[in-house]
Amino acid sequence: MLDYALTLAVVTLIYVLLAFALDLQYGFTGMINFGVAGFFGAGAYTSALLTMRAGWPAPFAFAAAMVVCGAIAWPLGKIALRLRDDYLAIVTLGFSEIIRLVLVQEQWLTNGVQGIPGVPRLWPTWTTAHSELFLLGMLCVANVAVVLFLRHLTHSPYGRLIQAIRDDEVAVKALGKNPARFKTQVLVIGGAITGLAGAFFAHYMTYIVPDQFVPLITFYVWMAVIMGGVARLSGSVAGAALLVLFLEGSRFLRGVLPWVSDDAMASVQIGAVGLVLILFMRWRPEGLFGRAREGSR
Amino acid sequence: MTFADIVNLTLNGLISGMLVALPALAVSLVYGLARFPNAATGDVVSTGGYAGLFAYTASGSLLAAGAGAAAIGALVGLASYYLAFRAILRRSVITSLLTSIGVGFVIRALLGVMFGHQPRTFDMPITRAARWHGVMLNPTDGQLVLVTLAVLAIVFTLLYGTSMGRKMRALADDADLARVSGIGVERSMVTMWALTGAVCGIAGMMVGVRTVVSPDAGWDTLLPAFAAAVVGGLGNPLGAVVGAILLGVLQEWSTPLVGFVYKIALAYVVMLVVLLIRPQGLFNRVQGVR
Fold first, then answer.
1. What are the extents of the domains in chain A?
2. Which one of A83, A266, A278 has the shortest CB-CB distance to B275?
3. Is A297 near chain B, with CB under 8 Å?
4. What per-residue string of b and e applies to A73-88 under the rule 16 or more CB within 10 Å gives b?
5. What ipTM goes with this model?
6. Both ends of chain A: CA-CA distance in Å?
7. Binding-face residues of A in 141-200 toward B, CB within 8 A
8. Which fold, B3-116+137-277?
9. What is the pTM of this model?
10. Which pLDDT belongs to residue B289?
11. How far apart are CA A21 and CA B44, in angstroms?
């Protein structure tokens, strides 16, 4: 039971990190990033490979995961941000699929579809229970640090500027600011936070395969942000909690209803994600706890 | 590599490009009128696969399969318009795009619950490929190309030869100007959603004949269709078709060099290069921000 609570806490906090990153990009800046799973996977593989193949200590590997994910976000922004919003969506979606293909294909590095077993815990000499607790603690620290950072960022002049870009990009241009530059920076910051979440994921699961980073994961995070509340950090926390409740709930339901096959349950899950997206975008685009926004959205 | 190999690769590229051409055309048509890249396109393609499969099993004729797939595809297109897209017609592209993701997931879930995830195949008679100096052509592929050409001919006749098509193109070109000229948005929208649904349905039948029918089959056509539509210039129907064929051929030519898995990646890299050099797409004029 305690193990289960620990797992739930870790999974929720990882989704909270992902939701923070997406909320910064979508909620505050109005950018459509459909590549969350790609950044998440890149972070996970970077940290896992650096600790296992190169023998890096975990803190450096985590930092490297953030740097790598921030760095791959940069050229994407350069290409897509000169264009309309929807191009970024198409480009990031394709980008995340390419990352997955690379993970599948470059077997010399990633071991292909078999994945990488035995990713070390954060404190390998400790017992499993202790090292998991330690990871949970570090995850809490990371979440608090990211919250403080994002709070500071969004309440600063910088934060007002990116929200102005979201609300009226032309007006921002008229003020002599270059929106593309700020959007690229936000994409990079969000990418780094997503990479950090990926590193935690790899060292918690201790086993990663390319199939863990399918586009569905991206839309789980979207569901969390849209349900919880757009452009409000507490909303991301609530949304991630609701998401894990939903994922665990459907697993629980599957246990109670033995005549429902795994496949059917997976379909129902996808359908529920789809319905949430449709209904929230139609009736409550700002989410349950988000700020209602005047003007068009 | 001999000359015949190159010809074979080119032929294969043309055929797989043709398969992507129809969904890409649908993406472009939706973009022209409703102004968002429709991420549910792939899942309407999957639906067409099932409809075609059942019509084929019942009748044994590919023509009937195509008709069935087109009819069901059109129905799904209309349903997605009336149930989801109509209510958010005037909202931002973000809203429409996320709604289309949702619609796609719901369609995929319904297919999964109704028919399961086991891939199914068309029970086609085995045919011998026609050979000519080492150049091979499978008769089934030849038929598929003919079907695509026929569908393309019908769609472009509709677009360029009828008054409804003219209205749709006027709306795509400048929605406000079209509206003040007295063109009804609703009727054009309904026609467009039915038409693109039918086109996707037929594409699903063809994907099913060439590969498998499964709830996830359509997703694999979505990304190439997006890439083709962007390369050709979003909102430009002819550009989407040419883009699809271009990408199909480039992908096949690159297979000996980069391998099988990176085919989709190649389409995306080409798309990125096009976006860098000619952001409006290969065949679009430069236009103001809408």
1. 2-214
2. A83
3. yes
4. beebbebbbebebbbb
5. 0.90
6. 44
7. none
8. ABC transporter involved in vitamin B12 uptake, BtuC (1.10.3470)
9. 0.92
10. 43
11. 32
